[in-house]
Amino acid sequence: MANFSYVRASDGTYTLRIGARGREVLTNPLSNFGTAFTREQRIDLNINGLLPTTVTTMDQQLKRVYAQFRGEPDDLAKYVYLNTMLDRNETLFHRLLMEHLDEMLPIVYTPTVGKAIETYSHWFHRPRGVFLSIADPDGIEPALRSYGHAAEDVDLVVVTDSEGILGIGDQGVGGVAIAVGKLGVYTAAAGIHPSRAIPVVLDVGTDNIDLLNDESYLGYRHARVRGDVYDAFIDRFVRAVTELYPHAMIHWEDFGASNAHRILDRYRDEVCTFNDDIQGTAAVVVAAILSAVRRQGQRLVDQRIVVHGAGTAGIGIADLLVQRMVNRGIPREQALACFWGLGSRGLLREGITMRDFQEPYARGAEELQGWRLDDPSTVGLADVVRNVHPTIIIGTSAQPGAFDESLVREMAAHCEHPIIMPLSNPTKKAEAQPADLLEWTDGKALIATGSPFAPVRHGGTTHEIAQANNALVFPGLGLGVAASRATRVSDAMILAAAEAVAKVAASKKKGASLLPGIDRLRAVSARVAIAVAKQAMSEGLATVDLDNLVQDIHERMWQPDYPRVEVV
Fold first, then answer.
1. One of 78, 79, 109, 562 is an active-site residue; which one?
2. Active site residue 6
């Protein structure tokens, strides 16, 4: 028998079976309750005398660790403190995070996790996750087995190859921190038990010259491997995961634009898989757009939508909006005609080089013949806004200030309530600041951003700024998939998640946020999970019958309390 194992009862409660004794109990973060171990437990586990005398409650522990957290000098120090705590007492960490989610989510997730990833090899102190090197493809399955999970014990595998981290690009092995951070959000928001998820980094080298020349760098010191060798490595990983953990959803995170769509398309019809940068981003942005359009009493098909940064995330948003229109009887060509996408070569248009997934959005040459252009050799963002008069503009370009005053005023001149979404992360990459957007549109803009912003007071109204945070979608989606044991993640399930989020943010009050706040994340995740599981069942993708969806989802949402201990 393993020294530590969690057993879940039918009512969702857990029992921790501990076969270890002495210091080993205190060094395992899932079994370490610290000073909350009772006298009896201390004696039975041979840890009496290894802890201070007083037995404390979890509430007393929470007060102490929260004070320590607040005492850290900056956000990166707070991240390292929480990461150390995760490695010491996992249950207490998740309880602290859940109770202070609004304050701590920007620390364990975007934007602070980006800073932590950039300096990962310098603050690293204890490995967490599975590190798979492309230099050792035969080691994939043994490494996964070494994590110690049985086939029925895994609901999620979050994996990154670290090429497209949070707007800061290729970060090599440090990207494992984003996989760990994502799993923390899955637990805090949706109650996915931490023992049922595995974070993985695929270390395929890095093209980050600074990392390759940093003597402290812990990853594979090699230029990023691509082509057939890379594809074979990905395939071996997918086959190993699906064989070892047949019910797990593979969550792809922060893959580069050249691989993200390709990998998702390769496996989405074969295994249960989900790309948060494509599908999660799309779902939360679609939720914000639906909320904004409904607030004005308009139809989605009547919008003119500009996507500035038509890469992995931008096209993912457009694809889901198109699918939503098609599902409601709009011909696909008519739906595609609502979009103008801009990539590195300007407007996606016939005659320029683009990626396969961008081609459906290419505009015809005849449309552009009458356009007035700033530079006849290209078609830039200002040209598109001037000629199209968009009602919605989405920024996924990582170009700070791209939505400048002249552009926004031009848009507002032809649209009563322009829907403007500067989504790029981190904050310094945002295409515009909410306060400026409200000033330039006389308070009429409907705004969603990628990073958190404080409310803005304008014209006597306090405007709550919606954060299009993927955390509103992916935790509930993962919970819904796990509860239903879905064999695939369909587009309809992604849309169901978006619709669930939009319904929570149904307020038409002036200045109200287009999306629910992070303080409601637990309830939002439950609603998303119910919608996703219901859709999976309707499509025949669920392999478990859920007779009472609300109760079934509720029981699966782990509450981070110290479990009953069974000493074996």
1. 109
2. no
